[in-house]
Amino acid sequence: MLRTTTRHLAALRHVAQPVVMRQASRASVYKSVTLLSRPYATSNNKVVPLTAEKYPGFTRNDQFKKLTEKDVDHFKGIVGESALIYNNEDDLAAFNTDWMNKYRGQSQLVLKPKTTQQVADILKYCNDQRIAVVPQGGNTGLVGGSIPVFDEVVLSLQSMNSIRSFDDVSGILTADAGCILEGLDNWLNEKGYMMPLDLGAKGSCHIGGNLATNAGGLRLLRYGSLHGTVLGLEVVLPDGSILDSMSTLRKDNTGYDLKQLFIGSEGTIGVITGVSILTPRRPKAVNVALLGLNSYDDVQKAFKQSRSELSEILSAFEFWDNNALQIYKKHSDAKPLMESEYPFYVLIETSGSNKDHDDEKLTSYLENMMVDEVAQDGVVAQDETQIKNIWSVREGFTEALGKEAAVYKYDISMPVPKINECLEDMRQHLKDGGVFGQPDSPIIDVVGYGHVGDGNLHLNIAANRIDKRVPELIEPYLFEWVAKQNGSISAEHGLGVAKNQFLSYSKPEGMIKMMKTIKDLLDPNAILNPYKYLPSK
Ligand code: FAD
Ligand code: 2HG
Ligand code: ZN
Asked: Which UniProt keywords apply (predicted)?
């Protein structure tokens, strides 16, 4: 039913008219986040505390050998002198800290192998000598998984960055694990294809790191998880043996699908060195719209309707709340995308092969959203720059939050209707705990954004100072809340050192036991990425 009050008509025109974005004239502000490593100091020049000291409960496992000059010489023999960083604090800094400046390790040695055989030789030696190893990709992970805790050797995949093959009939790409995601996507672009995943860290993260974390990202809704798109893997096991399952077959039902074990294993049972992955055709027509909404109920209505009306062309449905927007605005000089502000926003992307068809569908959907008063305002990008401008807001929250004195990051999944309740409950809980809502409170805000279409909320709590009451109030409170909804304490970033101790909130005892059995089987000396992933007890 088309209701036509003056307000509705005005709103409708607003969406349907060709140039609706108020930010149209701004030069391209979009950049994929190319995260430069920083030295051991935060933006306010505080030294990043050592993970081993900041987080209680870590004790160096004395079974692990301390590096000797003889070991270093052996590694030089494998990778060559130029592919190794040893005892040089300045050069080691980038590998010993994560980009959030939250975790800091004490490694004295970084190895940068160039071939799978070199990785195998390194791991065999480390296993024989009981030297602990941390595999590292682009170092953009958000749970401390890629950073040593003590003196583990860092095995960086950054020099293994070649594309191995591409079949332009089937769209199957094989590549080294150290290829940067954005590099692969740009390369595929030339061939009319694209990577099936996309995330804000694409300018730095490696495909190997994406696989090791089972990264989800912005288009999982459309292209599915890596568990579906990966066809084969090449993995070096801790004892140095190479597990070659670089299949390029879409169908293969011969035996256990072992590659799945390594997807999401966060470098604890093998080092991924190569991948075979199915890539989709790059869409000929892409549209991006942004809606301003008054309530989370409206967000859900907009989502439900987008699945019904946009169905096969819907490629992303992201949301953020106004609290997230405020933090973004505080740290960005970008002009607002809408004249007024709303409690919630959704970003809708369509990708298809026929522009007229997609435009028609999107316009009709947006008109319905406005007329039914689900959305209060809407803008549609008219060109590539405007598309990027809208995406840059969504992709900019992580970096903006990183500029606050402290940020407590949570990445949870739950039934879609529960997402805003989770945010509201946390705000109230922190107010009740006396750390939020007063002029001198340590908490600046609780912000929500994420892949709402996947039931994945990024709940971030920004603080103006470190106050030990804050983490104590959040954990395990939030994990208990999530468990009650049958949700997951990590939807996509993984466990690392941030969440391994809380695994039982998401996995039953029997499964954790089986995970430990698999770890013991593949890595009996526990040299790969110790102190992480599995709970210590
Ligand atoms: P690293 O950080 O280097 O490593 C991550 C883990 O994988 C570590 O445990 C490491 O030991 C292991 N590892 C790395 N390479 C290998 C390998 N070759 N073999 C075995 N183990 C390995 N994640 C999402 O899921 N969705 C998002 O939308 C998303 N957006 C992000 C946006 C920003 C701005 C940032 C900073 C991060 C984001 N992330 C997101 C986090 C995400 O996990 C990563 O960015 C990415 O998948 C990690 O890749 P990496 O190469 O940087 O891995
Ligand atoms: C995203 O979706 C990433 O933007 C990062 O997964 C989330 O900053 C975060 O908490
Ligand atoms: Zn995410």
From this structure: FAD, Flavoprotein, Metal-binding, Mitochondrion, Oxidoreductase, Transit peptide, Zinc
